[in-house]
Amino acid sequence: MTVTERLLKDTESIWAEYHQHPFVQGIADGTLDKEKFKYYMIQDYLYLLDYTKVFAIGVAKAKDMEFMKRFANSTHAILDGEMDIHRSYMARLGITPEEAEHTKQALDNLSYTSYMLRVAYEEGQAEVAASILSCALSYEAIARQIVAEHPEADKHPFYGEWVSGYVSDSYHEENESLVVLVDRLAADYNEAQLAHLSEIFTACSRYEKAFWDMAWEMRK
Ligand SMILES: Cc1ncc(CO)c(N)n1
């Protein structure tokens, strides 16, 4: 079993909840209330700004060129790739990026990014990469399951753009390289170190679930 396979196995039950989540199901069948999606988009826009900083701290801590390049490329891929989806939806929903940036981060969102930033400031390369992994991989898994169950979901006039962004080949390739990186960095880890990686990955997986709950309830 690779390190990533172990992390995924340890969090199986949490990941199963993503697929059942009413917010995810609403994107899948196109019935999600647009007000909830608008709330989510603004919160996720704020989330991604902090998430980019986690990669940037990773760049500053890099001990090898592959890690440095991978993380530096990600800062660009998020700011000018993934966030294009957000800017496009925000334009459709009549929100400017400035308005989004002036919105307060909801507590679940703030807790999640504060945790990742703490890992980034305090820990090593593999641990930073593990804190990012559940975010990156869960969105691909969610979008792929949506398309498997609702083959037209990526063509939905409103939610299709979100779905197609996360089932795209470019998103998959980014994720694959992250998996290879984590597996390499932790290849020589002992059980205690692996258990600690799993603790980080599990916390982030729980935060992902909390983020969907927060969006569904439009928490302040
Ligand atoms: C909360 C959250 N998790 C993961 C992703 C995927 O990058 C995202 N955009 N937002």
Automatic annotation (TrEMBL):
GO molecular function, one term: thiaminase activity
EC numbers on record: 3.5.99.2
Protein name: Aminopyrimidine aminohydrolase
Organism phylogeny: Bacteria, Bacillati, Bacillota, Clostridia, Lachnospirales
Gene Ontology biological process terms in this record: thiamine biosynthetic process
Family: Belongs to the TenA family.
Reactions catalysed, as given in the entry: 4-amino-5-aminomethyl-2-methylpyrimidine + H2O = 4-amino-5-hydroxymethyl-2-methylpyrimidine + NH4(+); thiamine + H2O = 5-(2-hydroxyethyl)-4-methylthiazole + 4-amino-5-hydroxymethyl-2-methylpyrimidine + H(+)
CDD domains per UniProt: TenA_C_HP1287-like
Domain Thiaminase-2/PQQC intervals: 10-217
Function: Catalyzes an amino-pyrimidine hydrolysis reaction at the C5' of the pyrimidine moiety of thiamine compounds, a reaction that is part of a thiamine salvage pathway. Thus, catalyzes the conversion of 4-amino-5-aminomethyl-2-methylpyrimidine to 4-amino-5-hydroxymethyl-2-methylpyrimidine (HMP).
The protein's annotated pathway: Cofactor biosynthesis; thiamine diphosphate biosynthesis
Keywords tagged on the record: Hydrolase, Thiamine biosynthesis
GO cellular component: cytosol
EC supergroup of this enzyme: hydrolase
Protein origin, superkingdom: Bacteria
Residue positions of the active site: E208
Transmembrane segments: none
PANTHER family according to UniProt: BIFUNCTIONAL TH2 PROTEIN, SI:CH1073-67J19.1-RELATED
Provenance organism: Hominiventricola filiformis
Record's subunit section: Homotetramer.
